[in-house]
Each structure stands twice: as structure tokens, then as C-alpha cells.
Amino acid sequence: MKKFSLLLTFALVLALAIPAFAVEDNVKITGEVKTVFEAAGYGDDSAATIELWEDGDAIDEDSTTDPDEFPAEKAFYQEIDFAIAGMVNENITFDLAVDTLVNNFTTVEGPVVNGAVLGDQGESDDLVLDSALLTLSDEVSTLKFGDMADFHAETYFIDEEDLEGMELTTAINGSDVRAFVVSENDDFAATDFYGVTVGRDLGKVNLTAKVYQARSEGESLTNLAVAADLALSNTVTVDGEIVSNDASQGDKGDTLVRANVNAALTDAVTLNAGVETVGEKFATLSTHDLEEAADYSLYTVGADYALNNNNTLGATYTMVTPGDTFGVNAEDKSTIELALDNVNGAFTNTAAVEFTTSDDYTDGHDVTLITLGTEYAMNGVTTLSADLVNKSDDNNGAELSYTYLKAGLDHAFSETVNWSNEVRFITGETAAEEDGEGSTFRTELSVKF
To answer: What CA–CA distance (Å, rounded) separates 354 from 338?
Structure first.
């Protein structure tokens, strides 16, 4: 659990003080209690099974840094979330969302990685404050204090979970303004992030100026950017951005340029294309979709074709050309993805196949990914779902391959009581030719009040 920071303490005290000055009838307390039971198996070789779970198309988490994201062999615990909402006056409302955790009812069992039991949601039996977010808003502005899940500024700057800080969004003289100060998570415990963006709608063009800065232990990183969205016609839109990047360490600092176009050729056919070029010395601090941080050119071409009201085909081709920093033997990486979205009565279905050549810019490293999914709304209260992922990752003869199945059942007893169940199964072989096999069952009863 994270320690209760001074910032969150301030937010909590402020939120509890506000109702004292508000009309009592304007304050409303709501909450949710989740009771969870989980059981899992890691097979005869738990290390191999964990490696399969960690893959980017399965759980996509690191067992060393995020052990709680993995299934426990045995766990029984309860989570409690609650919110306090109300009105300070006729124009200003407040909302305090607090996540707490009543820790395990039983001893958690599971593989131990880096001293932590996989699937363990807490270490004590006490009621522990996990996170809190205070939101104040009126008709124009919104001010947030506290824990911000999935905080996003830019892929080239910061796009992380569980940051703490302050964020203001407002409108000034016809311009949309956003300002934030955030910091503190497991990856960047000593880094503070600052940002201000100002956007203005000029009719067919929307311009946004951006200033971002990160500071860490005497070092700094600054991004100055201008982005534009342009409607060329009712069917064609273009957006682009230019980023000037500068870092205090060494001679880091370069530019990023991107542009995208989207064109609806007919009611059934939509085309899109994009290009992004990042300089060799472009500096970043975040793990994100930006290709290995710097020195590449990315090209994308795609199309969607609506066969009818129930079926849509999609195709995307992506090529990444690496620069010198990737090594003299770096190859262009290409990806082709084909997808079908289908609606058939109460069924919503998806199917996709993706082929990648020269993954990691390595000749002979090819990946094939097949995904299938379906969701069946049985009635107004029960939903069934199933997903399948089959992956083959062949790196010059060292092949990681697996099949991953997931099935779920959600049943709403009422508007406030919901019961969800999920079964997952994975089987495959690691690149070191170790067999892995894992399964998990999770059931959760959620009660809102």
C-alpha cells in the first residue's frame, strides 16, 4: 500500500470540512463493497507459467513490480470504495472518491517473486487507505487533488498509472486551459511533472500550445509543442503536432513531428494514414507506445469498410524505420492487422489476426497473433463473454507460443448488487522451451449503497 501522503491528507481534511459549511441535505455518501474469492494454479513449472502470463497479450504486467496483478493460488478479501458528494453553493460541487482495502480474510497463497506473494492485495488486517481523489467543479472549471489513475498527458511525456497531484481544467477568454502538477509512483518516485496546455477553436482549425517539464534530482526535461486539428471538409480531417524537446543531461534534445489524415470516402469506406518522425536525441522518461523512445520514422495506412450495419472490416499496415541508435543490423519492422467486428442479435463478436516481421527490429523475429472474442447479452441482467488469444513469437528459432482462454459471466441481481465470475487458462512454451500451464477462477460479489 502507498503511504498516505501529505497531499492526500490535505485533500481528505478539505473534503471533510466542506460539508460543515454546506447544507446537510446537499451531501450524499455512496460506496461499493466487493467481496472477492480467487483460486489459481501455476502448473509444474511456475516460472514458465509466470513468463507466459507476463506477455504483452496476456496479463501484460511485471511480476516483480506488480505482483498484485497476478492471480493468487488462494485469496479471499474485501475491497471498499466510497464517495462523498455535495454542493458548496449553487455553483460549486465537490466529490471525494476514496478507495480503501480491507485486507485478506485468509492467508494468501501463491508463487513468491522478489519476496512478494503473487495475488496478494495487502500485508495487514487493518483498514488501509489506498487512494483518494477530491474534485471541485463549477460550470466552467474542474479542480482535482489526490490520486489520479491512468494519468495521461502525452505518449512522449507522461502516460502512467497512480500518480498523485493536482489538475485544473478551465476556460479563459474562449480558450481551453489545462494545468497540472503530478508526481510519485513506483517508476518515478523522485520525479515531478508539470504541464500547461492552451487550446483555442478558430473555426475549422483548433490550435493547442503545450508546455511540459519534468524535474528529477537536479535534472530536467522540457517539451514545447504546437498541435493543430484541421477540418478540410465534412469528410476529411487532418491533425498534426511539432514538439521541441530539450533535456539538461548531456546533449539530449531533439524534435518530434507527426501528422495524420482521416477521410470518409463514402458512408461505408474510411481511410486513414499517418507519419511520425522522432529525432535521434529525443529524450523521454515514460514507458509508452513511442517506439523505443527515439530515432525512428513510423508510417501507418489503414481502412475500415462497413459491409453492412452489422459487419465492419478493418485493415492496418504499419512500418517503423529505425535510426542509427538501434544498431547497424536493425531492420524495418512491419505489421499487418486484419479485423472483423460483427453484431448478430444479442452477440457482439470480434476477430483479428496480426502479422509482425522483424519484431524488435531483428531479422528473423516474427510474431503471429490471433484474437477472437464474443459477448452474449442473454437478457437484461446476465452477460456471457469469451476470448481467445493464440500467439507465436519466433525469434530466430527461439519460440514463445501460447494459447490463452478467458470466459466470464456477469449477473446483475439488481441495480446495486452484481455478481461476476471469470475463468482464465493459459498453456504454452517459453523461448527456453519450458512448458507452462496456468489457470485461475475469480468470483466477485459487488454491493453498492
So the answer is: 6
